[in-house]
Amino acid sequence: MEPIVQQFLQRSPLSEDWQALLREEFEKPYFAALCEKVLEARRAGAVFPPEEVVFSALNLTPPEAVGCVILGQDPYHEQGQAHGLAFSVKPGVKLPPSLRNIYKERQSDLGLDPVPEGYLVPWAEAGVLLLNTVLTVNEGAANSHAKFGWQTFTDAVFRILWQLPRPVAFVLWGNQAKKKLEKASRGDAPAPRLVLASAHPSPLSARNGFFGSHPFSQVDAFLSAHGQAPIGWRL
After folding, report:
1. CATH 3.40.50.2300 is the classification of domain 3-225
2. Structural domain boundaries of the chain?
3. In whole angstroms, how far apart are CA 45 and each of 10, 41, 55?
4. Which active-site residues does the annotation give?
5. Nearest Cα to 1, choosing from 50, 37, 35?
6. 193-198 and 168-173: which strand pairing?
7. pLDDT digits 0-9 by tens, 168-220
């Protein structure tokens, strides 16, 4: 493993179980270049999320616990928002518009009232992998790390997820998420899969198929039907 990769993983720890599955990626030239770009960006200014929580989505939901995968884009890019989970914000932070719509659909689907906080760690701990396609971003500059190499890394994560030996539901909101799974899902999966695709919960697209898609009840019904604990979706 390149020294720059070792340095990066010391500053942004990743659990041993995910490291074992991703070891080949860490040996590839693109990942060393990615680490250098992110570390250089941090030297130049504020980068989110904080480096110790870059891999929070993976660390909070180990491979053997994944029951559902929800894919986001890149982290929130304002101070105090991002903490390593797609769509989630730290306690006390105003709800982002997409998450507000997610709560509306959850209420319509399951009858669960919206909550004032956007902290989705309970979902992660219940088996929902809340993964962004890009894991870092410059302050105030959405998609600023989109070409650093994170997409290649999260492609590898998705290939691993498709091959997990357990039932997994993939909830794909928007075209980017759909394309991500299409690249990863070549070949038969070793266990049952549920793939739910709809519009993104963004205010720009939520009324084009996100509202009324009932993803939460469908995921829980799928998991229960295959002998797995449902998520429950409580916060």
Report:
1. no
2. 3-225
3. 20, 6, 20
4. 74
5. 35
6. parallel
7. 999 999 988 888 988 888 788 999 999 999 999 999 999 999 999 999 999 99
